[in-house]
Every structure is written in structure tokens, then in C-alpha cells.
């Protein structure tokens, strides 16, 4: 199988790796870097479990080859929390019981980060529209929407959409 060397920044850490040209970004993150928070569900781009931020935009990492991310900045769910505290959205998901099995949660969180970066105080209908590419089979979305609304409502004067720094220990060498 043909390989290519890529350099990209994942969760604020720049790295260079040799990767098979047909390996998806989701598989690269999970298998090569050990960032298993990026979940693989449908592998068709329909469920949103594999959502990551690529240069600030949410993408379905199962639909991209890792080589397509050359030179990009990627944020995974592991890159949200700081060293000592959860990201405000992670804390709100906990506080509002916005997860059950947790499989969709990483993708939901990153989609929500994107939404709040575009609109710091979204209404429920806008949140639902923005999350339409992320499926949850457990929660019914009610508490997910409440959690995102809570962070949006508390956004005045706080930085709710930045990502935390991650330690080098999060990425496999």
C-alpha cells in the first residue's frame, strides 16, 4: 500500500507521520495517535460520531483521508479540556445529564463548539438545526440542547469556545 508523510497539528501538537494514502482521518486519529475519543459509527458520514474540527470547521473524519489533512489544525474531543478543568461544554453536558451511552458525545461536543464559535447565544431551534448531522439514539436531544443553551447563556465575558491545551502524553508516539 502506498504511503505518504504528512505534517499536521492535532490538539495543539504538531506532528509528522507516515500514513497509508487510503487511511481515513478517523482511523489515523484512533489507531496511529491513540485518540480514541473520535468514534467511528456508520463510516458513511451520517451519524456524526467521528466529528472533529479541521481548521475550525466540523468535519466527519470518516469521510476524509488522513493525507487530506496535511498542514491542517485538528481538534478532537481530547483537545477540549484543559489540564485542570473540563471545557465548559463538557461540564454543561455533565451538569445537564446530556449523555447516556456517550457514543455520540464527542461529535456532539465538537459540533457545539463550532456552533458557539459562530453564535455565542443560540436558541434551541438553531442548536437542533446545527446538530442535525449528529445522531443520538439514547437521549432525545432535550438535555443536550439545554446544556448548549446553558453555555451560550453564560458566554458573556467568558471564552466558551476555545480548546484546552493537551499534553504530549495524549498522542501515541
What attributes does this structure have?
alpha+beta, 173 residues, DNA polymerase, domain 1, 5-stranded mixed β-sheet, globular, 2 domains, Ubiquitin-like (UB roll), 5 strands
Topology:
Layout: E1 3-10, E2 13-20, H1 25-32, E3 51-54, E4 57-60, E5 73-75, H2 88-95, H3 105-118, H4 124-130, H5 142-153
Parallel strand pairs: 1-5
Antiparallel strand pairs: 1-2, 3-4, 3-5
Annotated CATH architecture of the largest domain: Roll
How many distinct domains? 2
Query: What's the main sheet like?
Result: 5 strands, mixed
Give the quaternary arrangement of the chains: single chain
User: Residue-averaged pLDDT, rounded?
Assistant: 89
The name CATH uses for the topology of the largest domain is Ubiquitin-like (UB roll)
CATH superfamily of the largest domain: Beta-grasp domain
Radius of gyration: 16 Å
> What pattern of helices and strands is seen along the backbone?
EEHEEEHHHH
The main sheet orders its strands as: 2-1-5-3-4
List segments where confidence is low: pLDDT < 50 over at least 5 consecutive residues: 156-161, 165-169
Helix content: 25-40%
What is the global morphology? globular
First CA to last CA: what distance?
Answer: 22 Å
The number of distinct helices, counting runs of at least 4 residues, comes to 5
CATH class of the largest domain: Alpha Beta
Total beta-strand segments: 5
Q: What's the gist of this structure?
A:
The protein is α+β, with helices and mostly antiparallel strands.
Detailed description of the structure:
With 173 residues, this protein is of the alpha+beta class. The chain folds into two domains: 3-79, Beta-grasp domain (Ubiquitin-like (UB roll), Roll); 88-153, [2Fe-2S]-binding domain (DNA polymerase, domain 1, Orthogonal Bundle). 28% of the residues lie in helices and 16% in strands. The chain has five helices and five strands, in the order E-E-H-E-E-E-H-H-H-H. The chain has helices at 25-32, 88-95, 105-118, 124-130, 142-153, and strands at 3-10, 13-20, 51-54, 57-60, 73-75. A five-stranded mixed beta sheet has the order 2-1-5-3-4, with helices on one face. Strand 3 (51-54) and strand 4 (57-60) form a beta hairpin. Helix 2 (88-95) packs across helix 5. The longest helix has 14 residues, at 105-118. The two termini are 22 Å apart. Residues 156-161 and 165-169 have low confidence and may be disordered.
Amino acid at each position: 500500500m502506498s504511503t505518504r508523510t504528512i505534517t499536521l497539528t492535532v490538539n495543539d501538537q504538531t506532528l509528522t507521520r507516515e500514513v497509508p494514502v487510503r487511511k481515513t482521518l478517523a482511523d489515523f486519529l484512533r489507531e496511529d495517535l491513540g485518540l480514541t475519543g473520535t468514534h467511528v459509527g456508520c463510516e458513511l458520514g451520517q451519524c456524526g460520531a467521528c466529528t472533529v474540527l479541521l481548521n475550525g470547521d466540523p468535519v466527519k473524519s470518516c469521510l476524509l483521508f488522513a493525507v487530506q489533512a496535511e498542514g491542517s489544525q485538528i481538534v478532537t474531543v481530547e483537545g477540549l479540556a484543559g489540564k485542570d478543568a473540563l471545557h465548559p461544554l463538557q461540564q454543561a453536558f455533565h451538569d445537564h445529564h446530556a449523555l447516556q451511552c456517550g457514543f455520540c458525545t464527542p461529535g456532539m461536543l465538537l459540533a457545539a463548539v463550532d456552533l458557539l464559535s459562530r453564535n455565542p447565544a443560540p436558541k434551541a431551534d438553531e442548536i437542533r438545526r446545527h446538530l442535525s448531522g449528529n445522531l443520538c439514539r439514547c437521549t432525545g436531544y432535550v438535555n443536550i440542547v439545554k446544556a448548549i443553551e446553558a453555555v451560550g447563556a453564560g458566554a458573556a465575558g467568558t471564552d466558551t469556545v476555545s480548546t484546552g491545551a493537551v499534553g504530549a502524553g495524549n498522542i501515541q508516539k
